[in-house]
Amino acid sequence: MSASPAAATPEVPLDAWWRGPFGRRLIAAEREQLKAALEDVFGTTCIQVGRWGPPDAFLPLARTTRAGLVADPGSRGDLLCHPSALALQSQSVDAVILPHTLEFEPDPHEVLREVERVLVGEGHVLILGLEPVSAWAVRHYFARRGFPPGRAHLLSRGRLRDWLRLLGFDVLAVRRFVHVLPVEALARGTLARGMERFGRHLDGRTGNAYLMKARKRVYTLTPIRPRRRPVRVLAPVVESP
After folding, report:
1. Could you read off the pLDDT of 221-232 as tens digits, one per residue?
2. Which domains does the chain carry?
């Protein structure tokens, strides 16, 4: 029996946003930034925690032997679990991609703690986010469903730096990109291309989106040898005859 159109699954607003002009522009720019950031990230396993955009948007860029998507239960992915409770062994992953995952989670710091747990020493985490002080953020605050829809909060680069450092990461690079205004009439054409060129000319100091790349620090333990104390030898007292 075929289902009637009324019985079809309703479209998720975020899926429609991804296919719109801003979603397509953002994901294309994020692919470009991730491709460059992953050039020196190797190893066995790379995971993307959280679905964002088309299924093949980011994982094919990984240069590890294996790559997989970790998604919430009820969604589609290679591993279904909550981002704050990853069903993975500790120190078993070489790279983690967080595409706006922290912005949708009620406890983003706990997600980062899980990322630190599953990463091997010298493993990398790559975080994609939207700048909280930007034109896109203004539209997010005034949009009924958010921009993009469903996002819980915005996280500044400064706060992420602090969290990562507390968890034992070294922040290697931060890049800002996507410089067009969140107005449909300005999202394409000559004006949009001009805004992108001007933003890139500023060397990443402006932009509505950012990528942060960090590496898990390895602490080397230097053995401390116990200091030897001289042993006092008491000579016997010899009495003279």
Report:
1. 555 666 666 556
2. 8-216 (3.40.50.150)
